[in-house]
Specification:
- Helices cover about 60% and strands about 0% of the residues.
- It has about 190 residues and is mainly alpha-helical.
- It has one domain.
- Strands 1-2 form a two-stranded antiparallel sheet.
- The longest helix is centred in the middle third of the chain and has 24 residues.
- The protein is elongated and about 50 Å long.
Length: about 190
């Protein structure tokens, strides 16, 4: 996925974006005012410091891989942990695309990654027994003894667990996999 994403970035720059989204056309609040051409392919990066700082998101992905290979368990299903790790690599690229290109596409992929990570984390939290137990203790302390109202989040409204009125459309990690597959299957010119 990463090879295609980064090649897509190079292609986007080489073509000066696509359609109405040329490279460098989007004003952002983060402008460093020091656009710099990289040695590789001459790609102009509008915010080189912010661009470089996104490498830290790859650390989350490598940590998930490391913990998995070391036999460490997660407080969530392994598939969900893997999806979150993969989405952080997507976020690393997406945020580099935003801060490097100043394009609407960069803004879209950065924001999408952040939303999917937050949504997946929310779903995991709602499904987590530790969260349920902590919430029960808090409710006992603050609102006397309302244990019955929060003891079983599985029966909670989809407004609470999935941030929507209808039940969740995707299981934990599914949106991450859909987003990652898009990069593999669709050329960046069609985004």
């Amino acid at each position: 996925m990463q090879d295609k994403a980064w090649q897509g970035t190079i292609d986007y720059f080489t073509n000066d974006g696509y359609g109405t989204d040329p490279w460098g056309s989007r004003d952002t609040a983060y402008r460093e005012e020091n656009a710099t051409a990289q040695a590789l392919h001459g790609v102009v990066i509008y915010e080189p410091c912010n661009y470089a700082s996104n490498v830290v998101y790859y650390h989350v992905s490598t940590e998930v891989c490391y913990r998995r290979s070391a036999g460490s368990s997660f407080s969530m299903p392994a598939a969900t942990a893997n999806a979150i790790g993969a989405m952080f690599s997507y976020l690393a690229w997406g945020s580099c695309m935003l801060h490097g290109s100043h394009t609407n596409l960069g803004s879209a992929v950065d924001g999408t990654a952040i939303r999917i990570i937050a949504y997946t984390a929310h779903q995991v939290t709602c499904a987590c027994d530790i969260f349920k137990q902590s919430l029960i203790r808090l409710m006992r302390l603050v609102l006397f003894n309302l244990k019955a109202a929060v003891a079983n989040l599985e029966g909670a409204s989809s407004v609470v667990t999935d941030l929507q009125i209808a039940g969740k459309r995707y299981k934990e990690g599914a949106l991450a996999n859909i987003s990652l597959n898009l990069i593999e299957e669709i050329p960046i010119a069609l985004y």
